[in-house]
Amino acid sequence: MKESNIRNFSIIAHIDHGKSTLADRIMEQTKTIRPSANNDQILDDMQVEQAHGVTVKSRTVRNLYTADNHQSYEFNFIDTPGHVDFNYEVEKSLAASDGVILLVDATQGIQAQTVANYRLAKKAGIKIMPVINKIDSQNAQVEQTINQLVALDPSFKAEAILKISAKKGIGVHEVLEAIVHEIPAPTGQLNAPLKALVFDSTYDNFNGVIASVRIIDGQVSQNDKLVLMMNQQTFTAKEVGFFQPDRVATKTLAAGDVGYIVTGIKDAKEVNIGDTVTTQIDGCTKPLPGYQPAEPMVFAGIFPQGDYQDFKAAITKLALNDSALQLTPETSDALGPGFRGGFLGVFHLQIIKERLKTEFNVDVLTTAPNVTYQVKTINDPQPVMISNPVQMPNFEQIEWIKEPIVMITITTNNESLSDVMRLAVQHKGTFMDMQNQGQLVEVVYAIPLSEIAYHFFNQLKSISHGYASFSTEFSGYELADVVKVTIQINYAQVDELTFITHRVDAPEQTQKIVHKLKYTVPRRLYPMPAQATVEGRVIARVDIPPLRKNAAVNGNQYSVSKKQALLRRQSINKRQATKSDIQLPQSVFNSLLDLDE
């Protein structure tokens, strides 16, 4: 296919605005797949994607389309997710695209991820083509949605905005024609040295890493001697091809094409997202700027409830196909061997947990997520990075602690502005800037990462009725008055419940935690204290009641012998505190996540 007839594009949208359904209709009308009643979100084939109604892993599909001008075109469609945790997947797709379809649900209008993804596309400098979906719905507000789009970007012309029903296929042909005429063709040079962007990768047990690539310049064929420029990793292309949507081998990928290269590399860490592939001999001299893969936002311990080896094999396989998931081996006294995982957010953690269950039948326990802190001790000239609260030094050894700060840009409407600003202040946000954008208001806050890593996204959606969106940019580390909170159950410290919080929040949070532990920790024959300590002082405590009534602790009729037995049991518990054998269910660890409820 000549380069002038190639179109590389993505679809960006808020969750459940019809992106995957439109992708199905495009594949049907280009005859990539046969029309069928079973064609329901084909690209969202993972069970967790179907359960949550959100794309998690982006996919690429080549479609061949014969336009009304009787010319044949190659449409390379690159799928994108919708949840804020997976913005890095959107950025990967946009890096390989020349244009995007901005899809908006006519029944809901512009919402959270609509604006966030629009902003990513503008930053990438690619063509944006607005399309309104679900116009056949009784609740459709087409004119209002058009006004919102024009307010979002004045360059959008109301009369040119396409109106479709992806579910029924209405207007999809017009979308295909608009792709031909509005999204620009690639501008690579076929005779230049090979320059290909790695924008995604998967792992195959037999073929090693399979790199998804956009060919910027030159061409690549099977058996070519290639090199990854970031770490000078050399390999031979075992196979090249494209997705339709399964892999289809071809002889050559040329400038403008989107496809894959089977590298044969067995170590997935050797293939970095954003890297540049070129030939070993006479290759390009300067790599593509690409983009930086997203760094993990939160960290949590993840431990098996069954066989460790099965769990290790399962989570290692997931990590091979998820470049954002970082794993470090970790051993817990209470939970045994496991991993400390780095995740994009709490939703990413939830997805990994569900995939382990649905795809590998592995049940796991996850500890409360935390962020990374920079800690300077009295005796160490250099600060250290702490991603596990248990590793936090004793308070008397600490000179200072710095926490990660992000600049958060929230876009909302005027009606929700006061509630949004109040939410940001409640999460220790510092106001930085405010700008009006037509009917929208954009406010910028500097806010600790720990304050937005857990429930902030859901709270923002709730108070703004799904309209507000936010994007973040790492700002650096700033001094913070934070403390390590340790939890003891029956006098034994439970490292997996240790967390770091702001000193001012510690009293209220610990009271909530110990009272939740009272109802989630499995009971025993004798009452067990659950207490929280900060800097060596107990600041919150409750007694977990026994399985049955005990005359020593219940009612007004005391039994001297049972009282003595209780005191002996408490003395034994204190002496054996370091050898606790309490089995903790997931509900105990969830206690730390539900403090805002």
UniProtKB/TrEMBL annotation:
EC number, UniProt record: 3.6.5.n1
Entry-linked InterPro entries: EF-4, EFG_III/V, EFG_V-like, EFTu-like_2, LepA_C_sf, LepA_CTD, LepA_IV, P-loop_NTPase
Annotated catalysed reactions: GTP + H2O = GDP + phosphate + H(+)
GO molecular function: hydrolase activity; translation elongation factor activity
Compartments in which it is found: Cell membrane
Record Pfam families: EFG_C, GTP_EFTU, GTP_EFTU_D2, LepA_C
SMART domains in UniProt: EFG_C (SM00838)
Binding site for GTP: D16, H17, G18, K19, S20, T21, N133, K134, I135, D136
Keyword Coiled coil: no
The Tr-type G domain, residue ranges: 4-187
Disulfide bond in keyword set: no
Annotated membrane topology: Peripheral membrane protein
Keywords: Cell membrane, Elongation factor, GTP-binding, Hydrolase, Membrane, Nucleotide-binding, Protein biosynthesis
Family to which the UniProt record says this protein belongs: Belongs to the TRAFAC class translation factor GTPase superfamily. Classic translation factor GTPase family. LepA subfamily.
PANTHER family, per database record: TRANSLATION FACTOR GUF1 HOMOLOG, CHLOROPLASTIC, TRANSLATION FACTOR GUF1-RELATED
Summary of the function given for this chain in its UniProt record: Required for accurate and efficient protein synthesis under certain stress conditions. May act as a fidelity factor of the translation reaction, by catalyzing a one-codon backward translocation of tRNAs on improperly translocated ribosomes. Back-translocation proceeds from a post-translocation (POST) complex to a pre-translocation (PRE) complex, thus giving elongation factor G a second chance to translocate the tRNAs correctly. Binds to ribosomes in a GTP-dependent manner.
Protein name listed in UniProt: Elongation factor 4
